[in-house]
Amino acid sequence: MEAARLSQISTQQRSLTLPDLQLSYLEWNRGQEPLLLLHGMADHSLVWVELGDFLQERYHILAPDLRGHGNSGKPATGYCSKDIISDLEALMQHQGWDSAHVVAHSWSAKVAALWATQNPKAIRSLVLIDPFFINSMPRWLKPTFPVLYRTLPFLKMMGPFASYEQAAQQAQQLKQYRGWSALQQAVFAAGIEQKPNGQWGSKFVVQARDEIFDDVMVVAGLTEPVSIPTLFIQPEQGLNRTEWQLKPYKTYLKNLEIAQVPGNHWCFLVEPIAFNQAVAEFLAAQ
Description:
286 residues; Rossmann fold
């Protein structure tokens, strides 16, 4: 992504002061309809720059760095789904929004489903992109978490890395950066920082990782019927490929559409044109 484009994106960055942190977010403010874009675990708001640009004429778009991620604050504790939902409702209240369309990826799709169950009036429509951890998880899985921390593609960028170049080499081996496009390079650069000891690592912090994993173990994202219009985006190489995996969504989401798109779990980074079109068509119909 050219330097001028990145400069333009940086001018759209905003910040909201909450009781325990600063919530950083990107804003596209040309359109009228409220739209929230929620990134997945260990990502940040810049992953949505292509979608935000694509939709900005019709929608007033906010893409927050969820707490513990990106440029938002990193408190010592407070990373449960209820904390994330509280931040989002505060951001909406700050904008004067009673409700919004919500696009959410992976772990945050579980948070969005939980939010829709608890407060359906806040959400006009839902787009769930290849959700992860939608059900609660059995306790016996917890001892496997250290293995997951080392192997899950979205956690491999936590580091530490001896240099920026070493981190970039690792990034180019991961699914979310397949093709190493200008967009992907910009997302990588915005999500990493040099630590006080001179090493490099993700802006996503360990305490957020640990509390989020603890939370997804005990909290189920879908527990009762939800009538909100919902689009389930199913990438060809995504996580949800079987009927068994789709069953919770087909059971509880009573106004559900499923759209298959090319790409993997990060379809908005590896196949943004097809992804953007699928989201735009669904939102336009609401």
